[in-house]
Amino acid sequence: MQKLISELTRLYLPAGTLSPEVLAQHVLGQTTLAVNLTTDDGLTRAMVIAFDKMGDSEDAQHWSLLCAVANAFQAELGFPAPAVSISGANGYALWLSLETPVAAAQAQRLLELLRRAYFPDIDLRPETVSAPVELPPCLHQRTGKWAAFIHPGMGASFADESGLEMAPPFAGQAAFLTGLHSISEAQFSQALVRLEQSHGAAPVVRAQAPVRAAAADGLLLKDATLEDIVKFLHSKNIEPTFRHLIPGK
Fold first, then answer.
1. pLDDT single digits (tens) 167-183
2. Residue 11: which of 106, 93, 72, 97 has the closest Cα?
């Protein structure tokens, strides 16, 4: 558990947000906290973009859109790969980590520009960045299922049911975060300038558009077999069990 807490703190949590004891209760499912990722002085180190299931749609449009957006962030803006999570309810989220804390208003501005360019059909609240979030892994109180970080190659299998019946293993959750990098101050500034200059242009990705092929290794649009995922976990010295790899089992 300590490795998982360390990774969550490294990537997303402002200093002093939660004590290790309180965070441990959260990831154990003893309580579920809505965590404020913005400090009292208005700085943040994370942006979270939710991709919920679209109405009564029976297909995986929300997953396809997430893949297209994540790929565009990396291929076009030079961002490092984000973490991917399932909500425990009806969708996914991308977790973008910032290397240097920025004003929440500035992060919100970048998020809005990203929305205009890459996912215009998703509504964002004006206070999305400063709104508390349920940090995975955690127990979703309404559904009784677990929100968790996932291997991107597993994403499509959660399109109909975006939660785990059982708590995910801490080592596996930490493995999905280990090796992820934060958006640097230079990358953040360059993306902000670029999108400010072109925010009036037509959106480049829409929900109904076909998903583009991955342009390079490491992008999210890549279906993984069960063997691929097991190999990934083995590379992190983690011995998986099938109940942690297959939803609903």
1. 999 999 999 999 899 99
2. 97
Residue type, 239: E
The domain segmentation of the chain, as residue ranges, is 2-245
148 bridge partner residues = 86
> What is 32-45 written as a DSSP string?
---B--B-TTSEEE
**Roughly what angle, to the nearest 10 degrees, separates helices 20-27 and 2-11?**
110
C-alpha distances out from residue 67 to 70, 148, 154, Å? 5, 17, 12
CB 110 within 8 A of CB 191: yes
Q: Tell me the whole-structure pTM to 2 decimals.
A: 0.82
Closest to 111 in 3D by CA, of 61, 168, 73: 73
Instruction: Please give the mean pLDDT across all residues of the chain.
Output: 83
Distance in angstroms (rounded) separating the CA atoms of residues 139 and 50 = 17
